[in-house]
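Worked example 4.2. Below are the chains of a multi-component assembly; read each line carefully before continuing.
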Amino acid sequence: MGTFFGSSIGRKFMMGASGLFLIIFLIVHLSINLCLLVPDGGETFNIAANFMALPLIKFGLQPVLALGFIVHIVYAAILTAQNNKARGNAKYSSGNNTKEVMWASKNMGILGIVVLAFLTVHVYDYFVPLQITGTAPEVHGTHMHDTYTLVKNNLQNPVKAILYIIGCLGLALHLTHGFWSAFQTVGLNNGIWRKRWTIIGTIFAWAVSLGFCVIVVAMLLS
Amino acid sequence: MKLDSKIPEGPLAEKWSKYKANQKLVNPANKRKLDIIVVGTGLAGASAAASFGEMGFNVKNFTIQDSPRRAHSIAAQGGINAAKNYPNDGDSVHRLFYDTVKGGDYRAREANVHRLAEVSNDIIDQCVAQGVPFAREYGGLLDNRSFGGAQVSRTFYAKGQTGQQLLIGAYQALMRQVNAGTVNLYTRTEIVDIVMVDGKARGVIARDLVTGEFQRHFGHAVVLATGGYGNTFFLSTNAMGSNGSAAIKAYQKGALFANPCFAQIHPTCIPVHGEFQSKLTLMSESLRNDGRIWVPKKKEDVDAIRAGKLKPKDIKEEDRDYYLERRYPAFGNLVPRDVASRAAKERCDAGFGVGATGLAVYLDFKSAIERLGEDAIRARYGNLFQMYEKIVDDNPYETPMMIYPAIHYTMGGIWVDYELQTTIPGLFAAGEANFSDHGANRLGASALMQGLADGYFVLPYTIQNYLADDISTPRMTGEEKEFVEAEKTAKDKFAKLLAIKGNRSVDSIHKELGLVMWDFVGMARTKEGLETAIEKIAAIKKEFYSNVRIPGSSEGMNVELEKASRLADFIEIGDLMARDALNREESCGGHFREEFQTEEGEAKRQDDKFAYAACWQYQGEEKAPELIKEDLTFEVVKVAQRNYK
Amino acid sequence: MENNINLTLKVWRQNGPKDKGRFETYKLEKVSTDSSFLEMMDILNEQLVNEGSEPVAFDHDCREGICGMCSLYINGRPHGPDDDVTTCQLHMRKFKDGETITIEPWRSAGFPVIKDLIVNRSAFDQIIAAGGYTSVSTGGVPDANAIPIPKDDADEAMDAASCIGCGACVATCKNGSAMLFVSAKVSHLALLPQGKVEAARRAKNMVAKMDELGFGNCTNTGACEVECPKSVSISNIARLNREFLKAKFQD
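Applying the procedure described above to all three chains together yields the following structure tokens:
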């Protein structure tokens, strides 16, 4: 297996597999966030959010998640550097007029940076106060954070809300290519499934992204 | 000089087995000590080089292109023949042999053709094992289709890209040997001379087309698999780089050039449309399986079409002249190529040609589309139809294609004996470069068969018979005086071309030569015309050597210099073709002398006088070549007037 | 219908691999729209030779779209502004009167320029030599019909095998990746029982060679498939990924 990580397809596999893993994380994240829309003053959401702070998750799954992000980002950097080298120093003076190529597919790096920037803000906004600096006060009889209030306060700042919406849109575009591309890269694709993965991927990307956006807007207006 | 064709004794069907049983072999330890030079990487060259490598010889393989896969074999569309008889329609080795000799208008050597038919089945097996994706039936077995000049379906095909798939199969086998280190590949390298030591071919002088450097290469034997010389005509279906230079070098070193006038004119090419045109594109003969060829019956319809007032589909059925079906009811649209080409010319000469120039006939798929549906036609010929549409900007599903004959293949070539050895010991010729198997006309789907037969199944045997006596010949270093002198001569030739510094581009002179060839040495030849051609070619030669302009130098890549050196050789070939055509006072296959035709305008052979291969021996510059005859005897085939009616 | 157009050509000229290279501009008048792009180049070269200057060097051979030799990057696209064609099949009717046409060589670290518009594509040969074949020698093979092959598999193999090795995929790829080329060969042979025998070995060796030669990594943009003159599908790339990963996981 020594050369697996040294091979182009091996590296691409790490990229695709970590991407798919992060997609699963997104599904979990969105599911919990949708609790914000339950009109009970944040009770349901807080219970769900508190679940994420359980030691098993905090010390068991969070490092895995972090690793997923790191692998995805590190391999992206390695692949991009290699690809730039392979392209060579001479650029086409007449540019590239190939049509029918998805814009997102050619700009995954930029979109990735947008998502990464958003992620940094996001971690600073929630992860840090909730799981690092903050101590859990008592809410409704148990020791847990009032995450609901934290979210609400945060997103009622219109600048933040807009920032979050931009981040979500970047994520959507990243996923429109990333979703089917991951299946292609790990070899789970063919002529028929390609269309299916593209459609599923596009629906998924926008569903996830709009799901988050709806929450942002709901919080902004609440 | 007395020619010995070395045909083995015994009954025709046993000659090849007998030869193999009795020939000399080289043992594995000695094979490693022997070097073979193979020039060309088409079907014959690549298959020979790969096979030699597999056997353990050291091979040096040369190509002028950037990769072996570019050789023009790749452009063959229709298919490859074999006597498998999978469709159970009465085919056999004997029938394939017979059809080929008959198709060649009884001007080929029986023993060679029979061997070709014998090994044809092995070729298909070999190619399938290599992963050539031949067309298949739903049952998973191989599909066949019919081709001109045969009443059985014996043609194996891979869409309209059979040549490509076969060549890639051979190319892959070759690259496997390159990887194994048995074959050294020299790309973008052109052979500029053959080196002779003590009367034997012992190497080549090559020129690196990128750096312009000259190289000396030694080989215990040299195989020329450099294709045909159709580009003498400038416009042909050959690739731009296809040339006859290696053949001419061999000829000038003493190898005989046989039947140069036998050039095949392919009936289904896209017509010429302007003086800037660089090549003619062939539309596969397989199209004649479903396409029907016609011109209008009435002159007024012809005029209306040429004036653009009528479209071909406006012409009613009863006003169309399906002239091949009319003249040849038994074979109809599937008559051999020479017959179909001449019939098209006859109609156009009579004033019934269509298109802006009047030099075109229709190839119509209307009835096939009605019978089978557009989808079935698309599945069979989709890529060809697309290719036609890209070039002509017409949709052949809706309007008939326009086609006209063009120079396609040269049956003539370097004279070889049964072992594919030329008159120079140690110099072999394979594929289209030799003259051996197709007589005066080649049947469709037989070129691929011959190229691969020579490379996979003939040369690997016969070359051993030669090399077995050469095992104690040590490798030469290239410093021997013969090599040094040959390199100097070659360098001087290039310097001489560069020094002319005249006013005309190479192409302009080549086009002039091409026109003379087409007008006088083309589809219909006459004594007067050929004499005129010889004079005109001499004038072109003079013009070339006094007025060609080659910019740049001999260092680095110089495309004009490459073209000029090839044109110098095309001029020699053109002269040879005209002389041979003038000598052959009969009509046979691709060679049609207007003086010799039946009342119905069919080719009329003169078997009592011309049942021979005309072999030309070089006598030195500015001297006429000498004719040497190899008499053809037919023990099995009954020589008769070809009849496709 | 035939028409004549006037053109301005911006052509890349480079004397050799080490030369820096530059664009030269040429005017060409009355080019028939029925002529092919390479015939237009012939006219340009005829003009240059008559002026006593060196003609533009460009690769070309069969001029019927099958040898894969022609390789020009025209107005931002390999093989120019038509779909499913090679440069030699591109016709001047695709251009407008007075248009400026920019003509460049394939650009990729894997394809260094030799002269003007000619690049070195021998990397493709090296990749094939690394494993793009079935390891059978001449003779001693079974009858061609001994193993039935489902028609669909044979047809799919044929589609993959129709690659002409021109390098347009690499030329257009923003990553300079040769995955379409490699995957077409791996697919062609993996789909057939004759090639399946050494499918794992082949995939590993060809990918290793491709990486060694400095081609980039595929990011599935699909540009290669759009520009492929033979419409080779990137489904082949998925198959290559599958074959390669399967081979590696089995190790």
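Take a moment to check your reading of the output against the notes. Chain C touches chain A through 52 residues (CB under 8 Å). The first helix of chain C runs from residue 37 to 50.
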